[in-house]
Amino acid sequence: MTDAASTTAQSDSAARAQIGVTGLAVMGSNIARNLARHGHTVALHNRSIAKTDALLEKHGDDGDFVRTETIEEFVGALQRPRRVLIMVKAGDATDAVIEELAAAMEPGDIIIDGGNALYTDTIRRERSLADRGLHFVGAGISGGEEGALNGPSIMPGGPAESYKSLGPLLESIAAQVDGVPCCTHIGPDGSGHFVKMVHNGIEYADMQLIGEAYDLMRGALGMPVAEIAEVFAEWNTGDLESYLVEITAEVLRQVDAETGKPLVDVIVDEAGQKGTGRWTVKSALDLGIPTTGIAEAVFARALSSSRATRDAAVGLASGALGAAPTDKAAFINDIKAALYASKVVAYAQGFDQIAAGSAEYGWDVHPGDLATIWRGGCIIRAQFLNRIREAYQENPALPSLLVAPYFKAAVEDGIDSWRRVVSTAAAMGIPAPAFGSSLAYYDGIRAERLPAALTQGLRDFFGAHTYRRVDKPGAFHTLWGEDRSEVES
Ligand code: NBP
User: Would the CB of 197 count as within 6 Å of ligand 1?
Assistant: First the structure.
């Protein structure tokens, strides 16, 4: 243990810490260090003392820490109202820690859950703690371990009153873009974790689209991996500038030391998931919002991991395949335009889902605020978010990002390219589900008439579900089994 750590350890009894962090695995210890580096005195706690001591041993000099072993000692080390940030594994562990803390805390104290909790759990926890006079703040935190240490994007929900006490502290450790912190109060109860969930869903869609762009450059143009890396690096200097495009170039440039092959060629092609993408899609289904880009991305990961099915299906007939594009530079530009347009669709759908969740739960989430706090610190940080921010500043009640003047023009500029990419992928047998379904979504929402009219006719035929007419109000039913006359129902 360092001198600084042992000195602070001796004064554990004084209630002097501004915040406590419990759960000192990679995320918790980095956030605790970030807080300490910003001049806050931080009480440390972990179920097993080893992680606390490891943190103090390695990084005790980062700032003023208070070492504690028991929950009682931990709570006793905090200034009132006490503020505790929980960074443990989401689920049962979070409930167990909340229970222990609640027993030791007093009315007016604040418990913050910074883990990836399901928003409905956050709603439940907030209600139950409010009954005991405690404030509960579900805070989405994005940026991985690097963001936690150097400035994450933070999405705190919970009571507005708690944010008054908590806001300045959280804003001090968040990423900053143009002097604006990537942290703001999102809304009541589960809103912070809800928007973090959709953020992760958008991240899934973004990564899937990048994967499809890469696969088309390889499959349709036969480009070597190193050359594709340079295309992504170049894209990162324009409208597509983003953390994910930047690190795509890095990953594609990496050569495996053992085989000399591109690293991407020795990585097993089965994508994992921890659940937030799946939660986003389940919530989209419940809310009735067509978040097709995120759903395709979640299913694409599931397909990649369906090893037995893939093994059984390898070599199935492709049918007659179309020819590869002849103008390489032009097709790379087409892919770039398709990536941009599909990305706009993914964000538009994600923001639609947030608006629907906000309406369902009465959260009053401001979409422009999200675009602002996602510009830095988080995994989907991108130049593009400035345009989204401007779109919501111009019209806070925007019905879809796709109708905002900037995005409307950008998609119109790329629409021919987008169609060429989707049709080439289909003709050459290269799977591009997110590009394809994003284009289908775009064509769907811009269509004057949809085949849903036929669906309604069929539903009325077999189930007397009735339909509405375009030319008069009311619900109608055709007597299909009788003389096929129409009755009003
Ligand atoms: P983990 O999710 O791996 O959790 C490990 C921590 O949980 C350890 O401190 C462990 O204590 C503690 N813990 C467990 Br497991 N069960 C417990 C219990 N019953 N009672 C008390 N403590 C318990 O850590 P992480 O990867 O640092 O993530 C922390 C949270 O942040 C998670 O909710 C995660 O989803 C979220 N998150 C992670 C990332 C990321 O990039 N990793 C990004 C954003 C959010 P022990 O040391 O005694 O075993």
Answer: no
pTM tops 0.85, yes or no: yes
CB 162 within 8 A of CB 78: no
Ligand 1 proximity of 90 Cβ (cutoff 6 Å):
yes
State the catalytic residue, choosing from 51, 196, 336, 343: 196
221 CB within 6 A, ligand 1: no
472 part of the active site: no
Q: Whose CA is nearest to atom 21 of ligand 1?
A: 47
Active site residue 196: yes
What residue owns the CA closest to ligand 1's atom 42?
144
| Binding site membership of 274 for ligand 1 (Cβ less than 6 Å) | no
Please give the chain's pLDDT, 489 residues, in tens: 344 344 344 444 478 999 999 999 999 999 999 999 999 999 999 999 999 999 999 999 999 999 999 999 999 999 999 999 999 999 999 999 999 999 999 999 999 999 999 999 999 999 999 999 999 999 999 999 999 999 999 999 999 999 998 999 999 999 999 999 999 999 999 999 999 999 999 999 999 999 999 999 999 999 999 999 999 999 999 999 999 999 999 999 999 999 999 999 999 999 999 899 999 999 999 999 999 999 999 999 999 999 999 999 999 999 999 999 999 999 999 999 999 999 999 999 999 999 999 999 999 999 999 999 999 999 999 988 999 999 999 999 999 999 999 999 999 999 999 999 999 999 999 999 999 999 999 999 999 999 999 999 999 999 999 999 999 999 999 999 999 999 999
